[in-house]
Design brief:
By secondary structure, this protein is an all-alpha fold. It has two domains: 60 residues; 29 residues. The chain has two helices and no strands. The mean pLDDT is 79. This is Bet1 golgi vesicular membrane trafficking protein like. Its main location: membrane.
């Protein structure tokens, strides 16, 4: 009888420990996800900052670069509208 009671108690303890372990694993998984998104945001910020520095340097330089810059900006705007049109057609 005592062995049976110990077996029940050890089963209950194992169940409690298993639940606690799952809770802690879920908590750790959410922290890892949060850290990954922070890391992605940081790398994206660094990329955008570098791009803006290069863009500013190119805009401050001579007239030839301004023509190139305007052409690139116009090309990007046209590409954006073409992509948005294609995506809207793909959804319907």
């Amino acid at each position: 009888m005592a062995d049976w009671t110990r077996a029940q108690n050890s089963g209950a303890v194992e169940e409690i420990l298993d639940r606690e372990n799952k809770r802690m694993a879920d908590s750790l998984a959410s922290k890892v996800t949060r850290l990954k998104s922070d890391s992605d945001f940081t790398s994206m910020t660094g990329l955008l900052t570098g791009s803006m520095k290069r863009f500013s340097t190119m805009a401050r330089s001579g007239r030839d670069n301004r023509k190139l810059l305007c052409g690139m900006a116009l090309g990007l705007i046209v590409a954006f509208f073409i992509l948005s049109y294609l995506l809207s057609r793909a959804r319907t």
